[in-house]
Structure formats: C-alpha cells, structure tokens
Queue: 2 jobs
Job 1
Amino acid sequence: MFDFRCSAGKMSEQQRFCHHHLLLSPLLLPFLSFSLFLAAAAEIHHQNPPPAITRFQQYLQISSAHPTPDYTSAINFLTSFSNSIPSLQSQILYFTPEKDKPLLLLTWPGSDPTLPSVLLNSHLDSVPADPSKWVHPPFSAYHSSDGKIFARGAQDDKCIGIQYLEAIKRLIEEKNFSPLRTVHISFVPDEEIGGFDGMAKFVKSEEFKALNLGFVLDEGQASPGDEYRVFYADRQPWHIVIKAVGMPGHGSRMFDNSAMENLMKSVEVITKFRDAEFDKVKAGLAANSEVISANPVFLKAGIPSPTGFVMNVQPSEAEAGFDLRLPPTADPDAVRRRIAEEWAPSWRNMSFEITEKGPLRDHKGRPLLTPTNDSNSWWSVFKQAVTSAGGKLAKPEILPSTTDARFMRQLGIPTIGFSPMRNTPILLHDHNEFLKDSVYLEGIKVYESVIKSLSSFADSS
Ligand SMILES: [Zn+2]
C-alpha cells in the first residue's frame, strides 16, 4: 500500500523547491498541486484515521499483559464490535471453575453447515511490557506521524484478531458476500503462558468438537521483507536435566569416575551434538528452526563455603540442565535413546529427567505439521487467495517457538500460522512493539481475500 506519511515528508521538500522555482518552471505546476494534494491527504489520514485504525487502537489500549490481563474489557470490546456486524453470532465459554478466563467464540454461519468449517484464531493476552523501556506507553496505541502504532500486542497478536473482524465486516457490508462454509473466530485466553486454561481445554470440549473444523488459521510472525511469512509447524521444547554421581574424594587425588568427570564427559558429548546441528545452519543447509537446538542453561555442583566453594573436595553429585527444541521432523524416540545411551548413560553413573513440554506427533502418530503442498487442498486455496490479494508467501517455515496451533495440529486439523505483516521488523515480545497503519490496513485486504476463498471452498474432502 502507498505510504502517505513517508511521501508527505518528501513532498514538503518538493514544495519548498517548487515554491522557489515556480515562476521559472511552469511545467512543475501539475506536480505541485499533486504534491499538495498528497500532503493534505496525509494530514487528514493521520488526524482522522479510518474507523478500522481507531478500533485497532481501542483494542490495543486494553491492558492485556500478564500477569493481570484485562479479559473482561477485551471481551466487552470485541463483543460489542461483533454485535455491530450483521450475521455474526457470539458466545462466551469458560473452562476454569472461577470463570475468570473467558474465551470468545464468534460464528458466521455458512449456507452449507454440513461442510467442515474454518476457524480464525487469535489470543487475548500479551506478554508484560516495561513502560520505562518504551518511547510511548505500551497501552497508549500511540499513532506516530510516520504511521507507526505503538502497543504491546500490536504484532502479537491483537492485530490479526481484529483484522479478521474488519475483513468479515467488509465482506458482509460492502461485498454482500455470504459464506458456503461456516466461519468461526476464536479469541482465547492465556496463550502466552502455555494455553493450558485456554486452547488446551477448548480443544477437548464438546463445543470444539461441534465446530467440525476443516482448517485453522492462527498467528504467525512479521516479515522484514516483501513476502509474507507462513508457518506449518512449531518446535517443541524439552527440558533435560542430567545428573552424575560418583565417589567423593580429596581435591588432590586423581581417580576415575568422579561425579564431575562423568558430567563433564556428557557436557562434551552434548556440545559436539550441538555443534553438528549448528553447523547445518551455518552451512545454509537448514534454518534455525529445522534443527534440534541443545543449549546448556545451568550447572550445579560443588560444596558451598562462606567464601564460595570448598576447593579441596571433589563432590559426589553434579547436575546440568539443557533446553532442547525439537522440530516435528525429529524422531522423538531416537532423541530419547541418544539421551539415555550417550548423554547420560547409566554405566557412567548418570541419570536424567526429560520434561517434554509439547508433543511431536499427532493423535495418529504422524509428525505434528501441516502439509504445505498439493496434498493439502486447503493450503492451495489459502496460497491462491494471498496471491490474488497482491501478496506473496515466503517459503513455509517451522516457527522457532510454540503457539496454540499445536493443539489443533495434534488433532490432525490442518493449521497454518500467518500474520499478514510484511516490510515490518520482528518486534513480538520486544520493547516498542509497533505495526504501521498501512501494513495493518493491507492485512485486512489480505484476510478479505483469504476468508472469502476458504469459506467458498466447495471440495467436501
Ligand atoms: Zn502470540
């Protein structure tokens, strides 16, 4: 989309130039009036932003940060906006006894309710923001003169939640469009703290089963380039603690199989594995998110003394912790075997604990990923819809972190992570998170095309 503000900045120099040379160059006259028009348009655009921008700002101004996200205000705002859109039905679901974590589910009924439906998901909550690190208060939704809207959640992911609604509003009110398939829009709590009281419980509910989903769109990430990024899988975290025990001894003695020696050998083995994975990335053979990362996060050993550690005793126990991230293409059994046989072998007096933070296989034992090729006709429809809105998709990626998409993929429902933000720095969870107004508005157009195509998709498979 044409960027009004940026051009207006350039135009003012042009105007000065024109002003001085007006009499000398009558040919510049048409250009001058065009410049003035653009400058004026920029002013109006910024001082009287379109209602879609104002609504985005209002949603951003609701304090959604953990540990105290204001779910009530968010639900009230979204419900009242959705009530203004004809044919949208709404219900609020709760999955905790305290009823303090609402989930808003909106439904746009299709003409053939027997066809599997489409779900557009986003989360209500955000990570915390430290106001002292921000140029503008994180819940001010400050709109700068160059079009940036600053707020926690501007990219992750309040933008997509409200873009879904804006796109549907336009399809209904301006295009008079009605869907063949039913479209659902969910606003879920607690994604940023694991989704356990949100999407994790929702997917197990009767209400979820009743949706009969065929395809899901969930959040993605900004793209600094001109192509939209798109994600077909998440990496799953595993937390590994390895522990060595051995005979304690005087610091002066040399003997085999001390706890520290055993642990250090394991650390070496794991470091070699890490190097080999990292080398694939450095050689350009794989993206960061396509390899298994294994990063040391703690070391625990030694006997504390008032001044630090006792230096003349070799301890009888030593521990180390590692954060592993596994792509869905990794074989979890092979990794478990490697840990047991090479990283913490019992013959070296070692034991281990694995905390698997997420699944790598779906309910049928298949890798937890959504195919992005012709075998998945939803993918083809989605891709075509982005293209016809003037967008281009980058090569599909594995998200380095995790999202609620894993819960739907686990049920075997094709789920794509997509947030239409291009030419935008990646600022999720960062200070001064912002989204440009023009990028936001362009995203609504992309969703108009995507929602229209997905909900018109007649293939009954
Ligand atoms: Zn998010």
Job 2
Amino acid sequence: MPIPLPIEDRPIRVAVVGLGQIAELMLPPYLAHPEVEVVAVCDREASRLERWAPELPGALRTKDLDEVLAAEVDVVDVLVPTPLHADVGERVLDAGHHLQIQKPIARSLDDCDRLLAAAERSGARLRVLEDYVFFPPLVRLQEIVRSGELGEPVGMHLKVVNTGLGGWDVLPTAWEWQLEQTKDGRGMLVFDHAWHQLALAVWLFGPVRTILGWVGETELAPGYTLDAPATLAWEHEGGLRVTLDITLAVDTFWKSDFYSCDERVEVTCRRGSVRCNRISAAGKQEPSLEVYRDGEVRSFHTIPDGGDAGFHASTQHLVDLCRGRTADAVLDGATARQVLVALLGALDSSQQGAVRLDLP
Ligand SMILES: NC(=O)c1ccc[n+]([C@@H]2O[C@H](COP(=O)([O-])OP(=O)(O)OC[C@H]3O[C@@H](n4cnc5c(N)ncnc54)[C@H](O)[C@@H]3O)[C@@H](O)[C@H]2O)c1
C-alpha cells in the first residue's frame, strides 16, 4: 500500500532512480528543500552513485532497484532513459510507492497505459515532471492571459532553435540513447523536446483536437540524425491554433548554464500579446517576459528565470502535493496521456507527408 497522503509530521522521503544528466537539475532542489529528505539513490553505474556520495552521505546508494523498493520511501522519482520508463515505473507503483517520472511519460501509448493502470491498481499517485509549466515567466504568462487584460487569446507561436555551442556538456550516455530514439521516428528534438511545448500548450489551452506534423532530418554524423527542421501545428478543443518551429543552428553560441536552446513562447490575444523570451537557456539579455498592449510594452526583469527555476518550483509543487496543500499532480497521468496522444499524432501526420510540388 502506498503511504497515505497527506504526510504532515515529517520530511517527504524521496528516492531517486537514475543519476544521469537530468539528476543534475533534479537533485539540487531536493537537497535545498527543508521539507525533503533524499533517502536513497540508485543507478546502474557506480560512477554516477559516487558523483552524489558527498552530497548524500546518509542515503542508501545502490545499483539494485529492489533495494530502493524495499526501503522506507514516500516518493520514487524515476530519471532513467525514456524507453525504460514503463518497466521501472510499473515496478515502483506495484511496490506501493508514489511515482514521479520524467517527461515524456513513455515512448508509446501502450507503455503509458501500463503506467496509468499500475497507478490505478496500487492507489499511488503518478506525477509526470514537466518543468516548463512551473517556469516562473510562463506561470506569469498564464496569469496574464487568464486575467483577460489582453482580451481573448487568438493564437500562439512557439519557437525552438537548438544551438550547438554554449550550455553544459551533456553526458555521452544521454546522447547515445537519445540518438538511438531518432531511428524509429521518435527523436530528440520533436519527441523528446517538443513534448515540453505540447505540454505547455495543453496546460494553457486544454486538449489538442487536431494536429499536423512535418518533421525533417539533419545528419550529424554518418548514421546519426536529428529530427529537425520540424514544424508542428495544432488546434485546441476551443479552436485556438498554435504553430511550433524547431530549427537546428549547430554553430550558434547560446549562453546557458544548462541546455543550450533559444526558446520563445508568444500568445497573441485580441488586444495585445505576451511573450516569454527564454526557458532553458539564459538567451540574449532581454527581459524574460514582455507584454504589448495599446502601443506600450511592459517588461518583466525580476521574475526568477534561470534554467533551473522551473525545477525548483516543481519540487515545491511535489511537496505541496504530498502535504495535501494541492490535489492536482501537474501533470497527472491523464494529462500526460493527452500530450503523448498529440505528439504521436504529429508524428503520424508527418509520415503521411507534405505535398511535393513538381517544379520545372
Ligand atoms: N525535464 C527536462 O527538461 C529533461 C531534460 C533531460 C532529460 N529529461 C528526461 O529525463 C530522463 C533521463 O534523461 P537523462 O538525460 O538524464 O539520461 P542519462 O542517460 O543522462 O541518465 C539516465 C541514467 O539512468 C541510469 N539507468 C538506466 N537504467 C537504469 C535502471 N534500470 N536503474 C537505475 N538506473 C538506471 C543510467 O545509468 C544513467 O545514469 C529521460 O526520460 C529524459 O527525457 C528531462
């Protein structure tokens, strides 16, 4: 049986499984949070366990997932490669632990449904970590749109430029499985990264009812391609349309302490617009958020906007969920499934192909 929530009288006991690249963003917020105790960490690689040993002298450090599952733990946070999400996540839920799992929830609807079914039968909470919907400038953007000060939203444009220079050095192992994913069409830039943009859109405007995809490819090295340039366009149930452009600019330097990537989110409303100028990276030294209305621009310069800000805010939300201060997992399993359905729909659409014109 999972630990009953809320947990009121002691820290939340978290175990982390998978200590690769994203652990570098997930663990610091836990370590900094006074209401969280990291009680166990697990990875197949001894070097990754050693990496965190100085910060976690009292925690169980093990290569064996069963040892974690047998420990006194409230939430198991799964940070393993996406192809392993269903297997590892199902074991966590069947062992009776609450599960937090990274985006994308899974690589297929079957795997996603395995996780949802396991959560249902165990009674445990399933939370999919989506840091973008906790990134403070985007939270403010949502508040501005919902306030009605710009009138009814009429469209959104999302832009991602993946740059090759700047940012941290991603672990070679993370590159390996990510590039492998591209081979069956679920690649790093659309399946893995555009998940964030689709999740953001669903969080802002609800379920997607129609989607188009046009996914190209760029060869990085013989046998290794990335799934860009890509363009996705979709319509939400309410009728609002969104376009997303994903471009690869490998020789561009883009300042970042984390992933290097130029990302923009612009919501156009009847009376004006609101634009977020960066997410993962530091970007150009612009305000992170700008609002245009009636011939004037309002700029926001003091919202926390580091590439790790969404991870800190998401950790606070996990604590609030475990403490009973909120009932909404953000993202819950059903919402994550909606995002996956839309993403797979875009890839199906792309398979059908664009119209090639016979030019002379
Ligand atoms: N939220 C974000 O912005 C974001 C960014 C990057 C990655 N991610 C997600 O995080 C997940 C991990 O990605 P990553 O980049 O950290 O990958 P990674 O390859 O760097 O790390 C994965 C780690 O899991 C370990 N591992 C693999 N199988 C294991 C098992 N059965 N038990 C224990 N440990 C195991 C590996 O040894 C490795 O250290 C993916 O789902 C990815 O999509 C999310």
